Amino acid sequence: MKTFLQVCLSRSWGGLEMVAGETARSMKSKGHASFVVCPQGSPLADYCAKQGIPMLHMELKKRPAPFLSMKLRRFIEDQGVTDVVIHQLKDLWIVTPALWKLSGVRAIGFSHTFLDYKKKDFFHRVLYRRLNILIALTQRHLENLLIHLPVEKSQMQIIPNSVDAEQFHPSKKTPGVREQFHVRDSEVLIGVIGRLDPQKGQIETVEAAHLLKQRGLGFKLIFVGEETKNSPGLGAKLKARIQELGLQDEVFMTGFLENPDRVTASLDIFVMPSYAETFGKVLLEAMSSEVAVVATDAGGVPDILAQNHEGLLVTPKDPIVLADALETLIRQAEKRAEFARNARKRILKDFSTDVVNRQLDQLFGV
User: Fold this and answer.
1) Which fold has domain 3-158?
2) What confidence tens digit (pLDDT) does each residue in 108-120 have?
3) Could you tell me the fold of the domain covering 170-351?
4) Global confidence as pTM
5) Closest CA to 22 of 48, 4, 55
């Protein structure tokens, strides 16, 4: 039996936090000792409490934090931790000092973001030298990390995020969802799912919706998600812009939904308009639900979604191009259905939980 420690000092609840929680739960279900380091009262802490996963509560406010490193080291030694898994690489400021001379403990880092500036100075070389393995999500992501971080290709592996293909299944399609948003039989339901963030392209999607209305196309557009905790205000801007453009009857904001699988499966078109999404778990969920996708040709998305086979890729930050792609799928129901079928097949082949868990089991040696 091994002892795994997931480290994630984030107070948000998105892809990387979910991966930390799901990895801890998976190791626990396989009979291994499983712990999580996270801030008290965070969404990840709430998830772990529900799953019965023991935690060490920490919050990183300043770097470096020697007292936190000492606390973490004592915990690692007391629990006999064999593998420390770091889900935010900035948490290496705590983890690397804690692992000093603990050569029997493996350090595995997961990167969930693309980088746009180099971190190859002396301090970062010291921090990253302790990593045994660094996981990238796609080939493009791996290439980005090699350029910006002091790591060697031999340290790196590609393991994508995964989706539960049974939870996000086309059978979850629910007529009541369309009724809730007053979608007529002649209209399509378009959805953007994910936290509200200036980098996620929601404003451009509202502008694209205005163009679709001007072109006489029948649709309803829903935004599912809450505001980013450390940068509120976009929700109010979106509502104001919807009012200004006279889209109150076409565009709806639902806020956060605990179980979005039924909404996802009930969409005709899913949109991921982010400026540069490293991966996008919601993209996998839509593809798994057999929904046609329009996504931006940026970040790691082209490694997931094949252009004109599983969906349409568009230039980021361009409402006109986005509207054109949406119009194509609104007018061509057969193409929507073809893309949706191909998307589900791709998920089952490369991104289902079963497929990715086999890769993780090999990585963790379980």
Assistant:
1) Rossmann fold (3.40.50)
2) 999 999 999 999 9
3) Rossmann fold (3.40.50)
4) 0.87
5) 48
